[in-house]
Structure formats: C-alpha cells, structure tokens
Design goal:
The termini are far apart. The radius of gyration is 20 Å and the shape is elongated. The protein folds into 2 domains: 3-164, NAD(P)-binding Rossmann-like Domain (Rossmann fold, 3-Layer(aba) Sandwich); 169-293, N-(1-d-carboxylethyl)-l-norvaline Dehydrogenase, domain 2, CATH 1.10.1040.10. It has 14 helices and 9 strands. It has helices at residues 13-22, 34-42, 51-55, 68-76, 81-84, 99-111, 124-130, 141-154, 166-194, 199-206, 214-217, 241-258, 263-277, 288-293, and strands at 3-7, 26-30, 46-47, 60-63, 90-93, 115-118, 121-122, 133-138, 155-162. The strands form 2 sheets. The chain has a 6-stranded parallel sheet, sandwiched between helices. Strand 8, helix 8 and strand 9 form a beta-alpha-beta unit. Helix 9 (166-194) packs across helix 13 (263-277). By secondary structure, it is of the alpha/beta class. Bound molecules: nicotinamide-adenine-dinucleotide. Nicotinamide-adenine-dinucleotide binds next to helix 4, strand 7, helix 7 and helix 12.
C-alpha cells in the first residue's frame, strides 16, 4: 500500500482517486470544494484539510486541476506541495495544461530534488470511472517508471512521450487534429445532404474510401450512421465544445511559441469559439455540425 495525495477531485479526479483507493492505496483527498472532498470520502478516500495535511506523508502526489495557473499554485504557491512534500516524493500532474507551465513546474520540482511527470489523459469521465484512461507522459524514464504502477490502475493505455512537457504536446496535437477533422467531416456531410446524398449512403461510401477518419466512423456528427454518437442524442456531451476549445487554445498558444504554422488549427479554434459565444459550448463538440448547418 502506498500513501497517495490526490489534489483536484472534480469530474475526472474523483473516479481516478476512487480507483486508487479501491486498489488498496491510502488516498488523501484535497480540493477547494468541500462537496468534491465529501464525494471522494464516500469513494474510499481520506479527507485532507490543506496541502500539508495531504502531502506530508505521501509517497506520490497526483493532481487533476483545471489549468496551468492552478497547477503552478498548487505545487509552487505559498504553503504548496513543494513546501510540504516528503523529500523523495513523486509528482504526477494529470491536468491538461500549457506546455510552458508544465515544463516550468517540472523544472522547479527537479531543482528541489523531486521527481515529476506530466501525464494528461484522454478517455473522459467514463474512462476515469472505469479505469480505462489513456495517459500521455512526459518526464525522465526513471520518473515514468515509478509512476507506471499507479497509471496502470487508472488507465488502460500508458505512453512515455519523452521529456518534460511532451505528454502535454502529445495531448494538444492529438486534440487539435481531432478538432480539425471533426469540422471537415461536418462540412462533407452537410454538403452531401445539400446536394441530395443522404447521410447513411455517404457514410457507407466515405467510411470505406479515402475520406475515412475517426470523427466519421466512431463519432459521426450527422445523426444516423453511428448509433452511440452524440449526434443521435441531440449532441449531449460526450466531450464538450468547451473542453475542445480549451485544447485548441492551448495548441494555438504552443504553436505561436514554437513558430509552427497551424492555419487549420487557428480556423478551427475560431469555429469552436463561436459555439462558446452562442452559449452552446456545453453541447458535445460534434455539435459544430449545427454551426456549419446554420442551426446552432
Ligand atoms: P473539474 O473542474 O471538474 O475538476 C477540477 C477540480 O479541481 C475541481 O473540483 C476544483 O474545485 C479543483 N481545484 C481547483 N483549484 C484547486 C486548488 N487550488 N486546490 C485544490 N483543488 C482545486 O475538471 P475536470 O473535468 O475534472 O478536468 C480536470 C482536468 O482534466 C482539466 O485539465 C481537463 O482539461 C482535463 N480533462 C478533462 C476531461 C473531461 O472529459 N472532463 C477529459 C480529459 C482531460
């Protein structure tokens, strides 16, 4: 049994912490929301009152927080994890955050003698609950190897993407590609329909031809062809347009700093931002189909 501090017990963190507790670890739960901590206690965790209480006996600290500023604050802020963690503690940040912050916090951890990896996930709330997440990890091989047994409890596929921040790079590049091909798929289905070709027939042809892609075959934005796709339940999420927009913005920020041209990424970000402006970003990201059709 390992003592694990788990900080950030929201939609994702709760299921992940519950799975670690179920596996027999002592999980010390910390969140600024009292309800989140109460839910974690119900799921088998122990409530912690503050960062010191959470981390002072922990061998491993796992964070699942909204954005880079929360991660910086929790680790490097006054009275944060760095101040109170055991000298040989391992830190695993599973939040999706900007590459620069991920690398900065990792460097600060290293400077203080701690081991740390970034380990953002895909698989959503369902994957967090079921323990079937995919982890994309950045950090030293040694830190990754130490983290692996805990990641294996929370996930099904675990990848080491290279040095610090490379987990975040893999995550945002993958999601930028997903965001782009979802929009292209919407445009193709909408054009087909306007020209008199129904969604199912176009799907049958294109899903076996060169236009085939995941957004079409597993998550079709046109109602009908893929039974369990959000388009068949009025675009209830799933993966919200708000979460997609967050990842597209992270990708654009990273592209600017790396001087990488991502014109389609920029255009796609602008389209998901229109869903936010219309106050429809709580719908699944495949509801960008409604934007393309003019029915949002
Ligand atoms: P969430 O908002 O539901 O949970 C975040 C939790 O962090 C909240 O309970 C909040 O109270 C807590 N928190 C914020 N600041 C804190 C602080 N200073 N100290 C302690 N706790 C604090 O978010 P979520 O949906 O669980 O997502 C978490 C991360 O996972 C995000 O980075 C998100 O991009 C990523 N992610 C989410 C999904 C998804 O489907 N929800 C999928 C993949 C990745």
């Amino acid at each position: 049994m390992t003592t694990i501090a788990f900080i950030g017990l929201g939609n994702m963190g709760l299921g992940m912490a519950a799975n670690l507790a179920k596996a027999g670890h002592e999980v010390r739960a910390l969140d600024i929301s009292k309800d989140a901590v109460a839910n974690a206690v119900t799921a088998g965790c122990i409530a912690a009152n503050n960062a010191e209480d959470a981390v002072k006996t922990a061998d491993v600290v796992i964070t699942m927080l909204p954005a880079g500023r929360h991660v910086s604050l929790v680790y490097a802020g006054e009275d944060g994890v760095f101040t109170h963690a055991k000298a040989d503690a391992l830190f695993i940040d599973c939040s999706t955050i900007d590459v620069t912050t991920a690398r900065n916090v990792n460097a600060q951890a290293h400077d203080r003698g701690f081991a740390m990896i970034d380990a953002p996930v895909s698989g959503g709330v369902g994957g967090a609950q079921a323990g079937t997440l995919t982890f994309m990890c950045g950090g030293t091989k040694e830190a990754y190897t130490r983290a692996r047994p805990f990641l294996d409890i929370m996930g099904k596929n675990v990848f080491h993407a290279g040095g610090a921040g490379n987990g975040q790079v893999a995550k945002i590049c993958n999601n930028m590609l997903l965001g782009i091909h979802m929009i292209g798929t919407c445009e193709a289905f909408n054009l087909a329909e306007k020209l008199g070709l129904d969604a199912q027939t176009f799907f049958d042809i294109s899903s076996t031809a060169s236009g085939q892609n995941w957004s079409m075959t597993s998550y079709c934005p046109a109602p009908g062809p893929v039974e369990n796709a959000p388009s068949n339940r009025d675009y209830q999420a799933g993966f919200t347009a708000a979460m997609m927009l967050k990842d597209m913005r992270l990708a654009q920020e990273a592209a600017a700093s790396a001087k990488a041209a991502t014109p389609l990424g920029a255009q796609s970000e602008a389209l998901y931002a229109l869903m936010e402006a219309a106050d429809k970003d709580d719908l699944d990201f495949s509801a960008v189909m409604k934007l393309i059709k003019g029915t949002l």
